[in-house]
Write the structure tokens for this entry.
Amino acid sequence: MGTLTNKRILLGVTGGIAAYKSADAVRRLREAGAEVRVIMTAGATEFITALTLQAVSGHPVYQHMFDTGAEAGDVQGRTSAAGGRMPRAAMEHIDLARWADIVLVAPASANFLARLAQGRADDLLTTVCLATEVPVAVAPAMNQQMWSNAATQSNLAMLKKNGISIFGPAEGSQACGEVGPGRMLEPADLVKLVSDLFTTGELDGLTMIVTAGPTWETIDPVRGLTNRSSGKMGYAVAEAAVEAGARVILISGPTSLPDPARVQTIRVESAQEMYDAVHAHVRATNIFIGVAAVADYRPAQKAGNKIKKTDETMTLELTRNPDILASVAALKPAPFTVGFAAETEDLEQQARQKLKNKNLDLVAANRVGPGLGFGTDESSLLLVEHETVTELPIQPKTKLARALIHHIAARYRAKKFATVHVLRRP
Ligand code: CTP
């Protein structure tokens, strides 16, 4: 798996000869693990067909602001962040803007850069760029004179000022026969630059353990106790931590998810196995995040053979499992310790209780119930700390995980700095 696993990239293609490279860019982004949706401007369709980009991206291409026919006809097979249909009719630009983790416009023509710099919303692509909160990057491609023109350069200065990343252009011979700056970067370079945008370096040099998924507590060789955790949130947290520069050990109960790229994944079944794996690695860990839905109890006895039915009722005796999170928080020194709380009611109060009882640094609480929490692709979190409460609103778990890691990185640094400060005080 590559460096863009689970990333959602909205690729804008504008009118320019370099549009022929867009198909290769889509292919390479997908090879790196990303999901790609394409928006074409009217000019782009003069250079490459929507059919080509549909074939390489595996999804219908978006072209028009108010194309109700296309919306109604092609929503089949698209999944939204919430796992439902995407996008809703007549809301396309907003849904696309929300769906993406990044908007990349490649090639970006001189005309498109001018419209973007002015904040225009006169077609689907410019409207999405205005409506999105996620990073926008452009890969300019144009004749070298057009690139050097003062108007283009002042548009670029405006775009940079507005936080838009400019990828390239490269120098060299151009389709028009001239030589100079204005060639679009090669697709492989674009993939690298896009993955760099996700790399924050906030956790550089730190080691983190994340527990994830459910546990399986054996009753007999064919039965066991488990829960509805899918592992998605824990895996997303592990991936976000890697992007932030951490060395990550993911200790996972049984899930159907593949091992995340660049993460050391240790698969376990029971709470006791998870406890053992955590304590085998935790000493060298700076941050511990317990996302796993660990069974509080296990059958007191494991039957060696399949249990046969006999009486009308049956009693299963259960024994308490060790509390992994509390045991980590009790270490001296303890890593920065974060717990999760999945609750159906009194979210903040329950989270605060766990924060105190287990002596944690932070509890990330989420509401669970029908259609919420376990198994879904979207969630929200309430971050409860001793002094503060922060709300991370409902969003895809991948984005939520990044926001959580960003918050934890800041708190970790603040705590470390405070400790050093206290130690040094005479
Ligand atoms: N946890 C753990 N080991 C356990 C049980 C839970 O590490 N044996 C961790 C989970 O990974 C999560 C947090 O503790 O981070 C959940 O706290 P907990 O109080 O166990 O939640 P519930 O089981 O929901 O508690 P209760 O039913 O008592 O409210």
